[in-house]
Amino acid sequence: MIPALLALGAWLAIPAGSAPAVAAVPQEESLRYNVNWPSGLSLGEAEIHAGKTKVEEAPGFQWEFSLRLEAAIPSFSVVDRHRSVATAELCVVELEKQAQRGKRNTKERTTFDATSGMATRETLEGGGKTEFSIPACARDALAFLYYVRRELSQGRIQPSQTIFFGAPYDVRLEYGGRQTLLAGGQRTEVDRIQVTAKGKASDTVFEVFFALDPTRTPVLVRLPLAMGTFSMELAR
Fold first, then answer.
1. Which of 92, 106, 132, 209 is most buried, most CB within 10 Å of its CB?
2. Rounded to whole angstroms, what are the CA distances from 117 to 84, 92, 167?
């Protein structure tokens, strides 16, 4: 469910007038989502937080992002905690992940070194390390979500690229048109984006609906699965 909210990318033409007159990136925000079964009943909730922090002994700032996801079905729970640090240009520096699937728990940290062009992924509490090459400005899924929102606010979307959320994902998106969406009891004008996210062991296609506000807030995600279409809806 997580890549459905976070994995985005690809060049496309945005219809004239789709970008707000004022483009902005949130200085700090918390977005809470209801995770729902196909029937509409609640499965859990997710929350994304973003904020700026000062860089010690240097001018400028860094971004800090976090994701919390809690969902449960009878006798099985899912709890995810993710945190990433990125530069002012939204290039990831460090990503930490904690995940619980039932009784199984995993923790890992990935550090990104733009100078060497390498990243190191470490499984914590006795696990191993792996190294892999990265582009000059690598982005994890959390940083990439805000980067794409910034680009959307200016009427453009970036090319298909690889993002990192533990494993790498090749991401492409396609513009699906303008529509009015009923979400959270409110009618909201949105742009529909179809996202294709391909990982080493997964190939997922889903929809993300971005409001036409200055920061292009994602208000709804729809993820088709064998059991039906699950959703993540912004809580008003």
1. 92
2. 18, 12, 17
